[in-house]
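Loading example: each entry is read as two labelled lines plus one structure line.
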Amino acid sequence: MNLFREIWQSIVRRDPLSTDKGKSELVFLNVWLHIHPAKVKKENMKFRHSFYLGFITFFLFLILVTTGIVLMVYYRPFPPQAYQDMKDLEFVVFMGPFLRGMHRWAAHGMVVCVFLHMCRVFYTGSYKKPRQFNWVVGVFLFLLTLGLSFTGYLLPWDQLAYWAITVGSNIGSYAPLVGGQLREWLLGGHSVGEAALVRFYVLHVAVLPAAMILFTIVHFWRVRKDGGLSRPIWKLAPPKAAPLVTIGAPAASAAPLKASAASSTKTYGLMEVVTGKPIFETITPEEEEDTVFSYPYAFVREAVALMVTVTGIMMMSLFFHAPLEELANPAKTPNPAKAPWYFLGLQELVSHSAMLGGVVAPALMVLALLAIPYIDRNPSRRPSDRKWAIWLFTLFVVINLVLIVVGTFFRGPGWALVPPWVHVVGGAE
Amino acid sequence: MERRLQQTFFALSILALALIVAAAWQANTPSWKTFQHNYLQLEAQAEPNAITKAAVLATPPEIHQVMLTGLQRVDRCTTCHLGVEDPTMKDAPEPFRYHQGLGPHIPSKFGCTICHGGQGLATDTAGAHGNVEFWPNPLLAKDYIRASCGRCHKEGEVPGVPELTEGRHLFETQGCRGCHKLNGVGGSIGPDLTSEGANHRAPEWLEKHFLTPNAVSAGSAMPNFHFTKDQARALTYYMLSLTSEDMGSFYSSVRLIPGPVYGRQLFDEKNCIACHNIGGVGAKTGPDLLGVTGKHSPEWLDEQLVNPELVYPGSSMPVYDLDVNSRKALIAFLTTATAEDAQLILSKKTRSLTPADIAIEAGKQDFARFGCVGCHGTELQGGVPNPNAQGGEVPSLLHVSDDYTKDEVIAVIRNGRVPPMDNPAGAAPPLYMPAWKHVLSDEDINRIADYLWSKQQKKASADAW
């Protein structure tokens, strides 16, 4: 019995969870949990503040990594075999369709959730000081998500994949000077072929996931370092409130702490070197009362979000199989050939002006997104103080959605405007 | 609230587990397992004693597949069609029935989809039969399966499939190449037909198209050739066989089935009649070949053809270096050969033609072979409708010498020509003269011109009367 206890204690060194010390140690003595703070503010964990979109996105990423690794076992990234492997997954591999379905639906879900997460962060003003840089990291994560989805789109090597990537990579080639070269570098040739498949595969299973993980680490780290989850807007202090009580820092009016000259004869601890005002948001007494231990308050909520995500994706996969069209055929262009749905807004613009949709719009969108926290100098997070920003962003979102919906549902053969309920006869031939 | 959340978490965990179990159950109960179970019961019925019965029934279910690297496919049809190679399953219900009359085409070497179409990789009924979205190659209807023979047997006659020979013959004589390319040779007005069979058009569509082109393809420039139903069927067979697939060396080694027709052709080409005779007709240097297959076994004859000296030391018959199929074909021909055959072969050889005759005959052959006859007619009569062209149809070529010099005609053949329009504001006529200079050599074009000139009817002299 003693041996068992010794083994247990060699693994788990914290105090019992019934004690406050144990609850804190559960978090900061555990490498996986210590990205959490030991204590969280209850209001910040409210569902109607964040909708847990960041968590859900991360959980979808975990599903994608897990199912993706299993799928790699069955996949060969060269043209005819790649498609045959899809068929084998469908017809021979045990639970193959379920596996592929989970990967597919989680991928689409992740694109959606990343976007919604970004909208939430914007509407709650959570990108404002001190979180500007984390917004920028988030934009890169969004682009990486699109990149992962786009590279994964080609791998089944069916007609859908082939032509979506052909159209998608054509959109990129409109960029002046570098566009054509960029496309050639990405495809390893002038058109989508064997080389493109291998390149997309390498990007999809190695390069982009690695980048994604690195950026995610930075993103999470900065969430902690920038003061944890942002305060819900309904808890924001009224605009003309009394001066706040600041914990752990001198009053704003006081002169900043001066570091004394280091002595060459003394060894310093970290606490003695780091000086100045902490970067954390100022905490009110009310917030102080609001604080609880992460265990179990935050963990049980995250666990529920995880299980909702997992069961949702599983249910989708059980009832809807991932689509697989005919073997890719470079000689047979579907009409219309469409890019993946999240690029259909751009394709719609390209159909009006290649320069606008292929170059100006995407470049402006990315630049604008990146610059948002630095352009928006308004320090207030209260919606009533930032009507303009909210209007502009909503316009941006709505235009994008409308373009995507038009491109997805209202474009028929020859990119003609056709309502989705009209069946076009013989359009594909 | 906290308690409720914990309960939710546990409920969702159980749901996740249930979903995994459901997915596993779904994966573990495919329809092919039921088929295999039924087949085993059928097999067990025939077993005499209980022990073997139990052994049969205990066979674990597994997917059967034929890996056909030479045909670039994997066929899993035998996962359910378990009795195709078992003659005792002659009267079994489908999908277990024995496939009769396959000859050398055993499923374990040829699979099923190469002839039948369908989706070999699939393991469910609808998917395997190709009746699903995004599988363009469903099972061929019974009437058209024999067209698949032509995928490997690309030349000569296929026994039991006269349609293929007929279709090929029609294609080469009716001028299809005038508008359609096949294996790189032909016009560009209609679509290239090199891999028409791989386009997975419904056979019924093709057949209707041959009967009335406009009925299935509105505004088609293809003239109505007034084919009979049999001819349309024959052309459909031929089209279905044109897949330009790489068949692998094993499968393409029998492009030509060694039958008597091919044998006769070889007998003619190799000039056997120069030494041999059949029933006294021909040369007397070698022995009479009438009834030779009755006197000697096929093996003996085969050996004789490989190396005559091995059988008859000192034989004066040359070694012809014939491959095994050619030898089989020759023997097949000799089985049926009569003095009449020899007479025909001989008469063709002795017909005297002047060099000019030969050139004109070659021109006529070219005129047919490259498809000129498709629009201009086998007798140069023209007359194929061509809306909005002057005269409304393709002109007759019987009077070209009235309006053109030979050099002008040669120029038109070389460079092509768009016919003048009746109504200049209207749509361009669907048919036009393609440029042939990239397809035909100057020699060919000159021969065609010579042929045309040999056929000119002197309108002027007729008027003089």
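Chain B has a mean pLDDT of 87.
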